[in-house]
């Protein structure tokens, strides 16, 4: 790994993290949703974007490090997803917990496939 790749990942990750914060905050406030629903929406968008990017970027390039590793890695967040699951569990909100897990995994999976399919046509 070269210094230029590290800096590109750093830049992409920072941009992705800031955009995730702004978008999830806007979704939660604008639609008056609980934070975990905003995280779900952002993670599904991120899954779709990584599907598109992986369909477009097929080589070991700086674009891959900037967008896939950096931006999408910073934009989506498994740690927040996991912490929100624990919170729902501790609050006894078992239906929302199971729905959130299912939607995150299943719809996220489908979003990656959709992103790849759109690029292949």
UniProtKB/TrEMBL annotation:
Regulation: Na(+) is not transported, but it plays an essential structural role and its presence is essential for fluoride channel function.
Main location (coarse class): membrane
Keyword presence, ATP-binding: no
Keyword Protein transport among UniProt keywords: no
InterPro entries, per database record: FluC (IPR003691)
A Pfam family this chain is assigned to: CRCB
Recorded topology in the membrane: Multi-pass membrane protein
Catalytic activity: fluoride(in) = fluoride(out)
Membrane-crossing residue ranges in chain numbering: 6-23, 35-57, 63-83, 95-119
Alphabetical keyword list: Cell inner membrane, Cell membrane, Ion channel, Ion transport, Membrane, Metal-binding, Sodium, Transmembrane, Transmembrane helix, Transport
Residues that hold Na(+) according to the record: 73, 76
Subcellular location: Cell membrane
Role summary: Fluoride-specific ion channel. Important for reducing fluoride concentration in the cell, thus reducing its toxicity.
Family of the protein in this entry: Belongs to the fluoride channel Fluc/FEX (TC 1.A.43) family.
PANTHER family in the record: FLUORIDE EXPORT PROTEIN 1-RELATED (PTHR28259:SF1)
HAMAP family, A to Z: FluC
NCBIfam families per record: crcB (TIGR00494)
UniProt name for this protein: Fluoride-specific ion channel FluC
Record organism: Capnocytophaga gingivalis
